[in-house]
Design brief:
It is built from 19 helices and 13 strands. The chain is α/β, with parallel strands linked by helices.
Length: about 425
C-alpha cells in the first residue's frame, strides 16, 4: 500500500475535503498523513488520522486573518501579501522531507509550493480544488469579489475574457515575488502562479458536482470533476435530543447558518437573522457557534432554536429553506439536501458560488452589504412560495445524491499509484 501525504491551508471548509479523502484512502489500506497547521493537530488526530505540523501556523480565528478573509475588496490581496506568500519558503522547507518520503502527495488551492516540491522530490503530485471559480475559465468567467459587478461586463468571446483575466493576474503579479524567487532557486520558470503554476499537474481533482461547475474547453487536460467530497468528523453523531425533538414536533424550519469562519465574528448578522425569523412567522434554527451559544440559547422556544452546530447532512434535509454565506462546502451540502437556498455572499468564492446556484435554479442570493430585515424577509418569502425553485432544488438534490465524489476522487488517485 502507498504512503500518501495531504496538505492544505485555510479554515475547516478547506480542511474537511482533504480529511475526507484521507479517510477514504486510509479505509482502502493506504498510509495517509495530513501536513497542516499545528492549530489542527487535535482535530485531525481525533479523527484517527496521522498528523504532521508544517508552517505557517495560521490560526483561522486570528482577528487579522478573519478581517482579511471577510473584507470583500482588498481581503484576498492582504491575505496573500501578509500571510500566504511570506510563509511559502517555510512551507516548502517543512513539506520537503515529508513529500520526499511519500509515494504521492495531494495539495490544494493555496499550495503554491506544490509544483516546486514535485520537481525537486520527483514525487507524483495531485492538486485538489474545491470551487470552480479558481480554474479561471474564459468560457465561464469567475465572479470576483472586488469586482463582482464586472460579471455583467464580461466579453462575448472567450478571447476577450482571457485578455481581461490575464490583465487581472498581472495586477497581482508583484505580490507573488517571494514565490517567484523560490521558483528561481529550484530552476522552475516564472509563471502565472494563480493558474499555470498550479495546474500543470498529472491529476487535477475538481471536488464538485459537474452540475455545479461543468467542464469547460479551457480546463487543463488532467482536470476531473468528481462530485462534491463531503466530510464532517461529527457526521456519525446523532442530532441532540433538543434538536431532534424540535424537528419532530412542528413544521420544517428556516435554517440560518454562517459557516466555520463567519460564525466567529457575526453578532450583527445573528441579530438580523433573529429579527427576520421572528417577523417571518416561520419556525427557525440559527447556528451561532460555541462562542455565542450561551448568550442566545436562553431564547430557545417552540418557534426559534439556537444551536452551536449540527451535521449539515442530517440537518439540511429537515429544513424548509437554507440561508447561508455561500462557502462551497455549505453550498454543496445544501444542494445535496434538495432544499432551496438563499445565499448572503461577501468574499472569496462565495459570490461566484451564489451566481451558479441562481443559474441552476436552486435558489437566489442577496449580497451581504444589501442585507436588511426587509430585503431578507422579502427574498425568504419569495423562495418559500416558489414552486418552481423548490421542485428544481429537489430534482438537483436527487441527482447529486447519486454522485459519490469521494469514491471517484479516490479512484482517480489510485490510478497514479
Amino acid at each position: 500500500m502507498a504512503k500518501i501525504l495531504f496538505t492544505t491551508l485555510g479554515s475547516l471548509g478547506d480542511l474537511h475535503p482533504p480529511m475526507g479523502l484521507a479517510k477514504e484512502m486510509q479505509r482502502r489500506g493506504h498510509f495517509v498523513t495530513l501536513a497542516v497547521s499545528e492549530y489542527y493537530r487535535d482535530y485531525i488526530e481525533g479523527a484517527g488520522l496521522s498528523f504532521k505540523p508544517v508552517r505557517p501556523n495560521i490560526e483561522p480565528n486570528n482577528k487579522d486573518i478573519l478581517r482579511a478573509v471577510l473584507e470583500p475588496i482588498h481581503g484576498s490581496r492582504v491575505l496573500h501579501e501578509s500571510f500566504i506568500f511570506p510563509s511559502m519558503a517555510d512551507y516548502y522547507a517543512d513539506l520537503y522531507p515529508l513529500v520526499k518520503e511519500s509515494d504521492l502527495f495531494v495539495s490544494s488551492i493555496l499550495g503554491y509550493v506544490a509544483p516546486l516540491l514535485a520537481k525537486t522530490t520527483g514525487t507524483p503530485w495531485v492538486n485538489a480544488l474545491l470551487s470552480p471559480m479558481v480554474l479561471w475559465s474564459a468560457y465561464e468567467p469567475p465572479v470576483l469579489p472586488p469586482i463582482a459587478w464586472f460579471r455583467f461586463l464580461w466579453g462575448k468571446t472567450p478571447r476577450l475574457n482571457k485578455f481581461i483575466l490575464d490583465t487581472i493576474f498581472k495586477s497581482f503579479g508583484m505580490m507573488s515575488e517571494p514565490l517567484q524567487l523560490l521558483r528561481d532557486s529550484v530552476g522552475l520558470p516564472r509563471v502565472n502562479i494563480y493558474k499555470e503554476g498550479q495546474y500543470s499537474v498529472p491529476l487535477l481533482l475538481c471536488l464538485w458536482s459537474p452540475l455545479f461547475g461543468s467542464p469547460q474547453l479551457d480546463w487543463p487536460p488532467s482536470a476531473t470533476a468528481t462530485g462534491f467530497v463531503f466530510y464532517d468528523p461529527k457526521q456519525e453523531f446523532k442530532l441532540s435530543n433538543e434538536l431532534q425533538n424540535y424537528l419532530d414536533n412542528g413544521s420544517a424550519p428556516l435554517i440560518f447558518t454562517l459557516g466555520s469562519t463567519m460564525v466567529e465574528d457575526a453578532v450583527a448578522q445573528i441579530e438580523l437573522f433573529i429579527e427576520v425569523a421572528q417577523r417571518s412567522k416561520e419556525r427557525a434554527i440559527i447556528t451561532v457557534g460555541k462562542n455565542h451559544l450561551e448568550k442566545y440559547q436562553k431564547g430557545n422556544s417552540e418557534k426559534l432554536l439556537f444551536i452551536d452546530y449540527a451535521p449539515y447532512e442530517k440537518l439540511f434535509p429537515r429544513g424548509k429553506l437554507i440561508i447561508h454565506q455561500g462557502g462551497v462546502g455549505t453550498t454543496g451540502q445544501a444542494l445535496q439536501s434538495g432544499r432551496a437556498m438563499l445565499i448572503t455572499p461577501s468574499c472569496m468564492d462565495q459570490i461566484d458560488n451564489a451566481v451558479r446556484i441562481k443559474k441552476m435554479g436552486a435558489g437566489t442570493f442577496l449580497m451581504s452589504h444589501k442585507l436588511s430585515s426587509e430585503t431578507l424577509l422579502r427574498e425568504i418569502k419569495l423562495l418559500i412560495n416558489s414552486e418552481t425553485q423548490n421542485k428544481r432544488s429537489a430534482l438537483l438534490g436527487a441527482q447529486i445524491q447519486q454522485e459519490n465524489g469521494i469514491a471517484r476522487a479516490a479512484n482517480e488517485i489510485e490510478k497514479l499509484l
